[in-house]
Design brief:
Largest sheet: 9 strands, mixed
Bound molecules: adenosine monophosphate
CATH topology: Rossmann fold
Number of helices: 6
CATH architecture: 3-Layer(aba) Sandwich
Helix content: 25-40%
CATH superfamily: HUPs
Structural class: alpha/beta
């Protein structure tokens, strides 16, 4: 069994996001970038499946600027076998990412694709679902527990009403939730070993995917600053402030 894992390089989740002065986007120059957090869970889960003897290869794919290769190396240092890097200088939208991933799936023929539930930069939560539709494969989104059997995968996913359990026929697309597992840290020897693991280089043009944007970004703005909160001494004072100062009741 082969598992393909899609990882995206995003601004590190600890970084305070700064909007560019001209409102054309957010600052990424000299900003710490990392693997999208749920993608780390996807890599970890694929490695656990491999370690349990149920899979024999974990392949990492990332689409983006040259530095996305570093993100692939991080996954290789965690234990993945090889990488596929698709170079794209512009920030491509989920439908284009899904179409590019479909081309990779067509050649790699994995049994499972693990992805993050959503990328924390654009918060789209679309790519996995779109890839599943393009391939006609089953999908399990927001997986917080996975159990793999012969030709079937059982997943638990969090929904508004509670937990939902699904049984999916392989091949399948699984998007991973942060609750799925605790991603491992790469050890120094494994970081060294990862330098020798193969990464195939492709260009987005090689995949013949139309990357023309469908979304027109007008402007990026900071949210309005929140005023400092105050402590009130009684419910009467709270009600009075809500009525007379905030004028919301
Ligand atoms: P999104 O639909 O943008 O929220 O992304 C959902 C998931 O799709 C991410 O967690 C990644 O697993 C995958 N993904 C999105 N963009 C890329 C990319 N440029 N390269 C590789 N995987 C991606």
């Amino acid at each position: 069994m082969k598992i393909l894992v899609a990882v995206k390089r995003v601004i590190d989740y600890n970084v305070q996001i700064r909007v560019k002065a001209d409102g054309s986007g957010v600052e990424t120059e000299n900003v710490k970038m990392s693997m999208n957090p749920p993608d780390e869970n996807a890599v970890e889960e694929a490695l656990r499946v491999k370690e349990s003897g149920k899979a024999n290869e974990v392949v990492i794919v990332s689409i983006g600027e040259e530095k996305s290769k570093e993100t692939i190396r991080t996954a290789l240092a965690m234990g993945a076998d090889r990488g596929i890097f698709v170079k794209s200088n512009s920030n491509i939208e989920p439908i284009c990412v899904a179409k590019a991933l479909k081309k990779i799936v067509d050649t790699e023929k994995p049994d499972l694709v693990f992805m993050g539930k959503q990328a924390i930069d654009d918060d789209c939560n679309q790519t996995g679902q779109m890839l599943s539709a393009l391939l006609g494969w089953s999908q399990g989104t927001f997986a917080s527990k996975i159990e793999l059997n012969e030709n079937e995968i059982s997943i638990t996913r969090e929904i508004d009403e509670g937990l939902e359990m699904l049984k999916l026929k392989l091949p399948s697309i699984i998007t991973c939730d942060l609750r799925l597992n605790e991603p491992r840290y790469a050890s120094l020897p494994n970081i060294m070993k990862a330098k020798k693991k193969p990464i195939q280089d492709l260009n987005i043009e090689d995949l013949e995917v139309d990357t023309a944007p469908r979304i027109n970004f007008l402007k990026v703005e900071e949210p309005p600053k929140r005023e400092k909160g105050i402590m009130v001494n009684s419910i009467e004072e709270l009600v009075s402030k809500l009525k007379n100062e905030a004028k919301v009741i």
